[in-house]
Amino acid sequence: MSTSETIRDLLDPRELPLRHRLGVVALGILALAPLWSRLLYAGGQDLLLLRTLTAALFLGMFAMSWDAVSGYTGQISFGHAVFFGVGGYSSALLNLGYGIPPGFAIVGGTVFAGLAGLVIGVPSLRLEGPYLSLVTLVAPIILLRVFVFRSDVFGGELGLPSPDPLVPTSGFEQATIVFFYVAFFTFLVILGVLLAVTRSDTGSVFTAIREDEDAVSAAGLNPAKFKIFAFLLSATTGGLAGAVFVHTIGKPTPSELLVTTVSIEVIIAAVLGGMGTIVGAAVGGIFLSLFRSYLSDVTATIPIVGIPIGHLDLLLFAVGTLLLLFYLPGGMVRWAVVAGKRRLADRKPAATDGGQTPIRQVAATWRRSIARLRGADDE
């Protein structure tokens, strides 16, 4: 088969697995959110819904960046917010203090976040298990104390003023729509980069490190090198999301970027969607943000106690999350994929492989394997 035919087959939607086609359709529906939100909202554009979707996209980005290092290599980080904070604060300081345009400031914030990943990742190579988790947990707390101590530079607990927007807009409605598409484009970039890395040979090494690091060393590979790269990749993508966040709908404040609850929400989102999948972390982040927002807006009351659901949104959110984690331990995406495969298998007739007997099937498999080995020897 020629190269052009191979590329044509890869670009043919019919050649994609069903779950990939469904993912493309979901992204297409999400990209049209300003259109269908206007159709659903009779009075015009539902700006609150778009803002909620934009915030959900950023939580999905944060969760994906965490999953790149913790879900794949098994290095559990409890303080991943440090990378969001470094990216967001660095970008804001470059813009506010030095007048650097937002686009270049975002690049600078991403670079600083990557450096923070190296600063934390390299010393952490000697640590494992709870010791590594403790180091990552303490890191954002130390950074927050530094921000409070040097409040003249970092704004203390109140944070910094809002930097210049990435895209100049006029009016709240235009800003809401533009910021949504900025977040959506950044979401696609981070998703594409992380999928490209984790679906490559490097991603296979990440997974092997998580399963058996000694086996990776025995194969002649250096686990430390791949761990550092995982931290760098995770910190860079998280810093990019944090930098874009402060130049769109967010602000460079500790409550939005640095507090421990941000790191915990990211972990819950990744676990809920499915660790070690990237897509699951993205889905979990979006779902978690939308679910929490939905509960806070419910006005119905609980029959027995007579308390509005919106007043107990945090409690119900925690209980609902625990139930999902309990009944879907592998994450929502893995559960959906397995359930879908079972349904398709039940609907398809039993494969006969052209009427071959089991012995002939085994023989055909061996012949194909020998042919591939001979082809490799000839090369």
Portion of residues in beta strands equals: under 5%
Helical content stands at: over 70%
Give helix and strand order, one letter per element, not per position: HHHHHHHHHHHHHHHHHH
Give Rg in angstroms: 24 Å
Main sheet attributes: strand count, strand direction, barrel closure: none
Instruction: Return the structural class.
Output: mainly alpha
Helix tally equals 18
Strand segment tally: 0
Q: Could you give the distance between the termini? A: 18 Å
Mean of the pLDDT scores?
82
Task: Give the helices and strands, then pairings.
Blueprint lengths: L2 H9 L6 H14 L1 H8 L6 H27 L7 H18 L3 H20 L7 H21 L1 H4 L17 H27 L2 H11 L1 H6 L4 H24 L7 H4 L2 H14 L5 H19 L15 H15 L4 H16 L10 H21 L1
Please name the defining characteristics of this protein.
379 residues; mainly alpha; 73% helix
Describe the structure.
Helix 9 packs antiparallel against helix 12 and helix 10 (201-211) packs across helix 12 (223-246). The longest helix has 27 residues, at 47-73. It is globular and about 65 Å long. Helix content is 73%, strand content 0%. The chain contains 18 helices and no strands. The protein is mainly α.
